[in-house]
Amino acid sequence: MKRYIAEVIGTFAMVFCGTGAMTINEITGGAVTHPGVAITWGLIVMAMIYAFGDISGAHFNPAVTVAFAYAKKFSWREVPKYVMAQCIGAIIASSILLFLFPASEELGATLVAEGFEPYRAFVLELLLTFFLMLVIINVSTGAKEIGIIAGIAVGSVVLLEAMFAGPMTRASMNPARSLGPALLSGNLQDLWLYLTAPFIGALLAVVSCKLVKDEQCCDEGC
């Protein structure tokens, strides 16, 4: 039970701070700034990995959880419970942001930039998650993101991708992170791509890991 609670709290903190920065930036006309939003995402992910990495593995992302299971580093039986915990955390975070900032129309929802076709956004989100999972699986111990290296590496890649891709797709890389704001703000138009592309990208990262590393690289305990 402690692992699931950790995933709820960690995902809550991540979505609350990350989309909270986006929400405040929206209602203040850019006070936080785009770099400020990207830095917020990177720092909160880093902090939550340090806080909960040794308890739940600090997944905070359904795509990461599924990819770890596919890599044989995590039990498939635990996947539904982790995904549910992550979605609950994200929805609670968005609910509180709605209460705090009712003037917001987006609540940090992942929306495709005007003029950027959804199918291009799908490919971009797939690639962003691919790079994220590639880093995660190579710095993690089993299915746990723990240690100084994991926190810095994963937080940095989140910051990097949010910095350059945020203006186009909001750089979700995380179905739970997209689900919460979409449900509470009513911005459901592009949700389908944010619920599918990250899973594909994360699974491709595991496949690539198997191609370039030892044959047993994705067995439990490696």
From TrEMBL:
SUPFAM superfamilies: Aquaporin-like. One of its GO terms (molecular function) is channel activity. One of its GO terms (cellular component) is membrane. It is a multi-pass membrane protein. InterPro entries: Aquaporin-like, Aquaporin_transptr, MIP, MIP_CS. Coiled coil: none annotated. The chain crosses the membrane at residues 39-70, 82-101, 121-139, 146-165, 191-212. It is found in: Membrane. The keyword Transmembrane helix applies. It comes from the Bacteria. Pfam families: MIP (PF00230). Keywords: Membrane, Transmembrane, Transmembrane helix, Transport. Belongs to the MIP/aquaporin (TC 1.A.8) family. This is MIP family channel protein. It comes from Dokdonia sinensis.
